[in-house]
Design brief:
By secondary structure, the protein is of the alpha+beta class. The chain is 35% helix and 34% strand. The chain contains four helices and 22 strands.
Length: 417
Amino acid sequence: MDRIIERKRGFQWKKHWPWVAGAAFLLFVVYWLLFASHASTLRVSAEDITISEVSRAEFKDYVRTNGQVLPIQVVQISPEEGGIVVEKVVEEGTMVHRGDIIVRLSNSSLDLQILNAEAELAEKQNLLRNTQVAMLQDRLNNQTEQAQLDMDTQRKQRNYEQFLQLYERGLVSNEDFLRAQEDYQLAQQKRSLISRRLQQDSIYRTVQMDQMEDNLDNMRRNVVLVRQRKDNLEVRSAIDGELGLLDVELGQSIQPGQKIGQINDLSDYKVQAEIDEHYIDRVRQGLTATFVRGDRTYQLQVRKVYPEVRQGKFRCDFIFRGSRPENIRTGQTYYLDLELGQPEQAVLIPRGTFFQATGGQWIFVLDKSDSKAYRRNIRIGRQNPQYYEVLEGLEPGERVVTSGYEAFSNNEVLVIR
């Protein structure tokens, strides 16, 4: 006899589990699309990162650098004349005065030049004296000739006047009268010509004598200069100071203008520092700097900024304002704080190695639970050895990750354990 099977009512897992699984999957997809974050996430340990707080405080615009003490002035020792070193009068480290002999040189070629110049001067002097004697003799001869022509003209004039009177009385012939007249006129012309020649000769001799005197003066000055070159074989100190370097040896050949040493002017000191090229447009003459030595703070002022950049740095010279440290010595190193501007209120974050990876364009900001940190774009302005100035993107009280980002710079969310 057949048995009637009753139909079960209600939920049956074996029958409906595909529908349950599909609904769950659909809900998961909807949740993931609406609520879940698509950002790349990385889990990090709180012990492996540095967390700093954003604050609003006074920002001191300065840069820290180290500077080396140098003499206020360094004078190079370069001989004007070359030669062989025959004596080192003083040694390195000796205090010298202006005009003191440091090195003596010998130059046989210069000695020969002096002898030749003196011999040429003597020859020119003899030539000038002989020329003066010859010109004086010519002048006397010309004066004698002029005197004779004057006398001859006077005689011809007297003879002409006598013939004129006789001719007017008819006592001489016309030919004799004309001959006397022509002789007188010729004598006048000769006297006029010799007068003009003597005048031109006088002008010429004067010019010639002046030129010879000028040449002789030039030769005298040349001899004086050559003798002074002899004096230049004694290399002397140009200032009072300390002989800091003397790179010569006895018997060494020195060329004119060759650097053989230097003299340090120790009347005062300067501090020379190398600063990162990032600040080259902000460092200018007149800015102040400070450094601490012992229990005292000393002030400096920018004296000179060198525009040349080498290996990412430029040089800057500082001079002291006020007192100097006791026992200051060349070569000492001071750590300087160079002020670039006046202190101002600003939003600040402590300096950290995150800047190397982000360039200051973004940073990880923690949420209120401190369990996650999200990447956020920011804008950083000035910086000093302690803080960065934040212009946009952060508010005081927020917490940020300031340690290095090398391990997670490509992620957008950090889950902090």
